[in-house]
């Protein structure tokens, strides 16, 4: 039984003559045959002078594709008349009047030539010849014919009601008659697929990636705004600790808190750990809009206040000594500077508090107008602790609040973060589902770089995302040898940058280490060079942080299978 396209059941065809022909074709043709019903076509053509390009349309009642070739069928149902003296064709109407119709053989011929031209242009532009026979015929399902064939026709191409019971055999025989090749070969394999693709096309409608991301972003932004409004009552607490997983909106709520206090002319210190995050926050809480807000990393604050107090701030060169200096010595020097400087803040906000050393909280409290009784707002996620290898210790604060719901990532990315972290992180009810994160194991660095470039092409060049929406993260610094795309100036023909500010300004796709990007986010992230967590310097927390930075799209190119 042949396959009818697009109707699954011939009985669904409205016109009885075409329904009868469809049923006969489906019942009597081999299983490998495709029967296209009511096949429309539209072609660009030029006028007789070869000048003006215009569109010409037509429609074939049936197109049969078999292993022998292609046949176009025109169906003329009802009582049909032909006048040999004039060469005119008519249909007898129920009223008894004759209605002139177009020559069915010319109609079938036009349809066939238009379809063959289209197939050749699409699939055989070099060969310029089909690898099979092709032709046409006219079916008169409600008539029988006698006499000699009309002009433009021959006996084999005239099919009537007597042919319906064995219509498949007649069609197959007719295709052979049309084949110009004396030794035809079956139309199979790649050639059959090419003819099929040329006939039916490969047209698909794909979601526009930039539009999909924009729609999802609007939903996530609304969820974050709803959360901020719902938690506005927390501002009645002068000292507050807010915890929550990545994507729960901690940073945005911290920013909302800073704006709330600034509007009330409070002098606010906003501290974080990551330099890139501080730069971004400085853009959001710019001095021109919020002059009473100071944004800084803790280490930069220590250096600045020591400079103002004329206290030497000598950072060791060696890594172990440098680490110990910023862990405790810098905090001690800040205490000394605080004793000498009169400046204080009405409120202190700390984001990324899980990365703050226990020794840092004393000078932070001293920066407050009311010291340990002053306004202090702490935001943290214990699972994002990448730098403090000990239990978290915060100042004494009675009011605590947990943000359990993810409202930054799509559901599928949030699900991956849950699996990495080992706990369930529920998404907001109306959060978009999004695209399943893609994970591929590519041990070779050059091959990973090639894959990164291909993904960039799909997202930016084909998907129309902006470079400022895409970031490439690695456990290694871009200038190091471990990053497969490090020290590049272009990828997939696109500019790249290692400067987050330049990235946000649209100067190129960002390449950054996972830890330097912590606290930031991107619509689309390519995570590369990652191995199995808890091996070397790459931990489960690193993987969790990296995955959670992607809001809408996430692709991972790992060096070995990772636990996800």
| CA-atom Rg in angstroms | 36 Å
Q: How many helices in DSSP terms?
A: 14
Share of β-strand residues: 15-25%
- Shape estimate: elongated
| Share in helix | 25-40%
Count of spatially separate domains: 3
The spatial strand order of the largest sheet comes to 16-22-21-17-20-19-18
Poorly predicted ranges (pLDDT <50, ≥5 residues)?
none
Q: Count the E strands.
A: 22
In round numbers, the mean pLDDT is: 89
Largest sheet: 7 strands, mixed
Q: Distance between termini?
A: 47 Å
Structural class designation: alpha/beta
Topology of this structure?
Blueprint: E1 3-5, H1 16-28, E2 34-46, E3 53-66, E4 69-75, E5 80-83, E6 88-92, E7 98-101, H2 104-123, E8 133-140, E9 158-160, H3 167-178, H4 189-200, H5 209-230, E10 239-243, H6 250-263, E11 268-272, H7 275-284, E12 293-297, H8 298-308, H9 319-340, E13 347-350, H10 361-366, E14 375-380, E15 399-402, H11 411-421, E16 438-441, H12 445-462, E17 470-474, E18 490-491, E19 494-497, H13 500-504, E20 509-513, E21 522-530, H14 540-548, E22 550-558
Parallel strand pairs: 1-2, 4-8, 8-9, 10-14, 10-15, 11-12, 11-13, 13-14, 16-22, 17-20, 17-21, 19-20, 21-22
Antiparallel strand pairs: 2-3, 3-4, 5-6, 6-7, 18-19
Helix pairs in contact: 2-4, 8-9, 11-14
């Amino acid at each position: 039984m042949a396959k009818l396209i697009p109707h699954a059941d011939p009985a669904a065809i409205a016109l009885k003559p075409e329904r009868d022909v469809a049923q006969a074709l489906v019942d009597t043709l081999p299983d490998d045959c495709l029967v296209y019903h009511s096949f429309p076509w539209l072609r660009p053509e030029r006028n007789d002078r070869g000048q003006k390009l215009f569109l010409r349309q037509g429609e074939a009642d049936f197109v049969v594709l078999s292993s022998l070739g292609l046949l176009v069928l025109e169906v003329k149902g009802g009582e049909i008349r032909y006048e040999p003296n004039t060469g005119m064709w008519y249909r007898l109407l129920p009223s008894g009047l004759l209605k002139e119709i177009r020559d069915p053989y010319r109609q079938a011929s036009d349809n066939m030539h238009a379809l063959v031209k289209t197939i050749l242009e699409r699939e055989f532009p070099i060969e310029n010849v089909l690898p099979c026979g092709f032709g046409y015929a006219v079916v008169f399902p409600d008539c029988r014919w006698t006499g000699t064939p009309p002009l433009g026709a021959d006996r084999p191409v005239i099919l009537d009601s007597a042919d319906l019971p064995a219509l498949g055999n007649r069609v197959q025989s007719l295709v052979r008659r049309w084949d110009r090749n004396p030794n035809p070969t079956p139309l199979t394999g790649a050639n059959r697929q090419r003819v099929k693709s040329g006939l039916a096309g490969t047209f698909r409608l794909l979601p526009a990636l930039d539009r999909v991301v924009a729609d999802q972003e609007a939903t996530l932004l609304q969820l974050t705004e709803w959360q901020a409004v719902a938690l506005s009552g927390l501002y009645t607490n002068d000292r507050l600790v807010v915890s929550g997983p990545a994507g729960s909106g901690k940073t945005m709520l911290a920013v909302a808190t800073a704006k709330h206090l600034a509007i009330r002319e409070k002098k606010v210190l906003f501290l974080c750990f990551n330099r890139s995050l501080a730069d971004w926050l400085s853009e959001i809480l710019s001095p021109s809009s919020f002059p009473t807000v100071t944004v800084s990393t803790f280490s930069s604050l220590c250096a600045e206040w020591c400079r103002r107090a004329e206290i030497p701030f000598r950072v060791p060169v060696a890594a172990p000594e440098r680490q110990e200096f910023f862990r405790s010595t810098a905090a001690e020097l800040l205490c000394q500077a605080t004793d000498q400087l009169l400046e204080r803040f009405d409120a202190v906000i700390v984001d990324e508090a899980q990365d703050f050393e226990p020794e840092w909280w004393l000078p932070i409290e001293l920066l407050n107008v009311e010291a340990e009784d002053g306004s202090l707002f702490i935001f943290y996620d214990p699972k994002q602790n990448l730098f403090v290898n000990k239990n978290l210790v915060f100042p004494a604060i009675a009011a605590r609040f947990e943000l359990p719901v993810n409202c930054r990532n799509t559901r599928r990315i949030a699900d991956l973060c849950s699996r990495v972290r080992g706990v369930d992180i529920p998404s907001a009810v109306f959060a978009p589902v999004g695209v399943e994160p893609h994970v591929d194991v590519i041990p070779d660095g050059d091959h990973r770089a090639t894959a990164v470039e291909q993904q960039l092409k799909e997202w930016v060049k084909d998907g129309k995302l902006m470079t400022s929406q895409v970031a490439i993260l690695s456990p290694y610094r871009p200038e190091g040898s471990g990053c497969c795309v490090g020290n590049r100036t272009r990828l997939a023909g696109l500019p790249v940058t290692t400067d987050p500010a330049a990235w946000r300004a649209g100067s190129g796709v960002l390449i950054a280490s996972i830890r330097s990007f912590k606290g930031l986010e991107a619509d689309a992230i390519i995570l590369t060079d990652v191995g199995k967590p808890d091996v070397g310097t790459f931990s489960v927390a690193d993987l969790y942080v990296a995955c959670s930075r992607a809001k809408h799209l996430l692709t991972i190119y790992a060096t070995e299978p990772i636990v996800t």
